[in-house]
UniProtKB/TrEMBL annotation:
The keyword Oxidoreductase applies. It comes from Harenicola maris. Keywords: Oxidoreductase. This is Mannitol dehydrogenase family protein. InterPro entries: 6-PGluconate_DH-like_C_sf, 6PGD_dom2, Mannitol_DH, Mannitol_DH/Oxidoreductase, Mannitol_DH_C, Mannitol_DH_N, NAD(P)-bd_dom_sf. Pfam families: Mannitol_dh (PF01232), Mannitol_dh_C (PF08125). Residues 289-471 form the Mannitol dehydrogenase C-terminal domain.
Amino acid sequence: MDELMNLSEANLAKLPEAVRRPTYDRSGLTAGIVHIGLGNFHRAHQAWYLHRLFDMGLGHDWAIIGAGVRAGDALQRDRLLAQDCLTTLLELDPSGKSAEVCGSMIGFVPVEEDNAALIAQMADPAIRIVSLTVTEGGYFIDPATGGFDASNGDILHDAANPDAPHTAFGAIIAALRLRRDAGIAPFTCMSCDNLQGNGTVMRQTVVTLARLSDPDLADWIDANSAFPNSMVDCIVPATGPNEIALAREFGIADKAPVTHENFRQWVIEDAFCNGRPDLDKVGATFTPDVHDFEAMKIRMLNGGHQVLAAAGDLLGLETIAQCMAHAPIRNLLRRVEAEEIAPMVKPVPGMTPLEYLDLIDRRFSNPKIKDTTRRVAFDGSSRQPGFITPTVRGGLEIGTTVEGLALVSAIWARYCYGTRMDGSVIAPNDPNWETLTVVAAKAKDDPMEWLRMTAIYGDLVDHARFAETFCRWLSMIHADGVEAAIAVYLDS
C-alpha cells in the first residue's frame, strides 16, 4: 500500500497516481446548487456528473453546497468539512476496482433547528437549483390517496411557523419567499429520489405546504419555479468499516468514502426556470418525457430489490449478490419481473423491459457490491407502496397474474413479524417497525389484518383476487417457511 494520506485539498497532488483526482482548480468554483441530503447516493451520482463536467472545463459556476435538516446531518457535515468536502468514490466491478476523488462540493451549511443558514444560502441569487435526496418516504405523501399528508407534526409546525421551518420543504418555501420579496428569480426544485413523477410530487409538496401559510406565495411558486421529473440510477451501498478500509488500500484516509457499481444513469426532464449545467455532455439525458424511463427503473429495479431483500434477510443472506446466487430467490425475481412487472413497463430507446431485466440481473449479481439485504429492505412501509403495490394495481386492472407480487407482499409481512426463519431476531428496520410487528403478529392468524393497513395498501384489501392470494401465501409461509412457499410458486 502507498503511504496513507488524509483526504484534503492540500494532499490531492500527493495521492497515488492510480487515484483519479480533480483536474480543475477548485478555488475557482462557485456555488450554483444547494443539495439537501448528503448521503452516499448523491455523492456517487449527481455530484460525480458535476465533477466530470468541471473536469471538462465547463460549468464551474454550478458547484454544490451541501445541506441537511436532521440533527444527524451535522455529523456528516463535520466529516466532510474536515476533508474539504472531498469524497473518495470507489468503483467496484467484477473485473477490478478503481478510486476517484470527487471535488464538486465546496461547502456545507450549518445544520440548525430553524434552518436559518440553509434558508439564507438558498435565497442567494447565485443558487439556481435546489436538489434533494431525502428518500422516497420523505415527501409527506398519503399512500392511500397519493395526495399531500398535511397531518404530519413537522408539516403542522412549518405551516404555523413558516419563518422557522423544520422540514426541507419549509426551508425551500421560506427561501423562495425571500427571493420573491427581493425581486429575485426562483430556483429550480429538483428531486433526485426514486419516486414516479418525482418532480410532480415535489411540486405538490412544496406548493401545498406553502398554501397552508401563504396562498399568494404558493401561486407564485407554482407559476414561476420549476420541478423537473428525473430518473436516477446507481447502486450505492452504505459505508462502514470495510469501505473505509478499502479507501485506505488506495492510500487514502477518508472518513466517508463511497462504493458504487460501474453503472450510472440520469434522465432529466428539460424543464428548468433559472438555467442548468450541461450534464448531457457527461452522460446524462435531457428529455421532455422522462416517465417511461422512470417507470422501467422504479418498477423493475427498485421493485426487484423489494422482491429480493426481505426474502434474503429472512433466510440469513446478507447481500443482494448472495440473493442472486441463491437459485430459488433469483428465479423468484426473474419470474415475477417477466410475468408481472415487465407487462406494466414500456420500452425506452435502446432497451426493452426484458433486456432491462437481464441488465439488472447482472448488476444485482455483482459480488463486489456489498449492498446489504437489510439496507434494501429498510422502510418497506414506504417502498412497498412506492414500488410494489402500483404494479399490483396495474395487474388487477389489465387482468395479468398477481401471484408473485402477492407472495412478495406476504414475505414482507413475515419479515415484519421480526424473526428470521432460523429464529434470530430482526432488528427494527422501518420507521414504523413497532406498529408493523404488532400487525404482523395479528396477521399470523388473520392475514387480512395486514392488508387492512390502508396507509400502505389502500383498498387492495377489497380486491379479492389479490387479497385471497396474499392470505394463502402468508399462511403457507408461517406454516412451512419462506423457501417452501417460493418453491410452490416456482413449481406452479
